[in-house]
Amino acid sequence: MAAEVVFETHSWSEDNDSGVASGWRPGRLSPRGRDLAIELGRRRRGGVDVVLSSDLRRAAETAELAFPDGTVPILYDWRLRECDYGDGNGMPAAQLHEHRERHLDEPYLNGESWRQAVRRVSGALRDIAERWDGQRVLIIGHVATRWALDHLAGGVPLEELIIADFGWREGWEYRLTV
């Protein structure tokens, strides 16, 4: 079983404007982010069978603005969330990520490690490959979502991902198999 996956990050948020690491905070899109979400819909409309989104507000809002007419079903899955930074949710991003590699296996205080986050997301990805076999799926998520895709579908070690620049762009494509 296999699904074709297009991954897009949630659109630009108010926290992005402020340099804040949202983590598990819901977040809201900025005016710029709302425009970018609408553009994402124009770019992807007609090319996907279903949208699966993180349930965090900034991702859900991205999906809802991109596909407002209901012609493409939108489903929400908490497992597609960002890494839970615990007590670091909402702190300045530069400060939180300064030593991100320390949290590959060591959870953030009252949160989770990156490896735990990728494992959580990978469970959702396996379900997607099985449930949406032969279909093209758009996933809207976060850094942890992309790392899980790179790791699970691309075989990239987490040790490499955690030290690499995220390198935003308009979507990544993967083939998920189970």
TrEMBL record:
It comes from Dactylosporangium matsuzakiense. InterPro entries: His_Pase_superF_clade-1, His_PPase_superfam, Phosphogly_mut1. This is phosphoglycerate mutase (2,3-diphosphoglycerate-dependent). The active site is at H10 (tele-phosphohistidine intermediate), E82 (proton donor/acceptor). It comes from the Bacteria. It is an enzyme of class 5 (isomerase). Keywords: Glycolysis, Isomerase. Belongs to the phosphoglycerate mutase family. BPG-dependent PGAM subfamily. One of its GO terms (molecular function) is phosphoglycerate mutase activity.
